[in-house]
Design brief:
By secondary structure, this protein is mainly α. Helix content is about 60%, strand content about 0%. The chain has four helices and no strands. The longest helix has about 35 residues. The protein is flat. The protein starts with a helix and ends with a helix.
């Protein structure tokens, strides 16, 4: 176990033997704390002054706003459209194709290779 009584006696003896050094160190610490407090107070007052000076000027409109020129949208280009919940028969015939058995088999083999690469020799 740690004997706190013995440790406190050693600290007291050290401080009594080195009284001048202890006083000097304490004075320096107090001086450093005071300097830190003063610098913090001075820094806060300077930032408040800067904030008062740096207020943004108010915008006064003396002329109407001009819209900048932009590229025009080409004819036939649709920016938005309403989509239906289901495809029509015409859309199905245009966009959807049934895969043949060869393509399905190639896809299955490709997926099997990917799975084997991922799991490797895992049991």
């Amino acid at each position: 176990m740690v004997d706190f009584q013995q440790i406190s006696e050693k600290i007291q003896n050290f401080l009594q033997e080195n009284a001048k050094k202890t006083i000097i160190v304490c004075a320096l610490l107090i001086l450093m704390v005071l300097c830190a407090i003063i610098s913090l107070c001075a820094g806060n007052s300077k930032t408040k002054e800067k904030q008062k000076v740096a207020e943004e000027p108010k915008l006064v409109l003396d002329q109407p706003l001009q819209i900048p020129s932009a590229p025009s949208i080409p004819d036939g280009y649709i920016t938005t459209r309403k989509t239906e919940k289901k495809w029509s028969q015409k859309e199905i015939e245009k966009w959807f194709t049934l895969p043949d058995e060869g393509e399905v088999e190639k896809l299955s083999e490709s997926n099997d290779r990917i799975i084997n690469d991922i799991i490797g020799a895992a049991p």
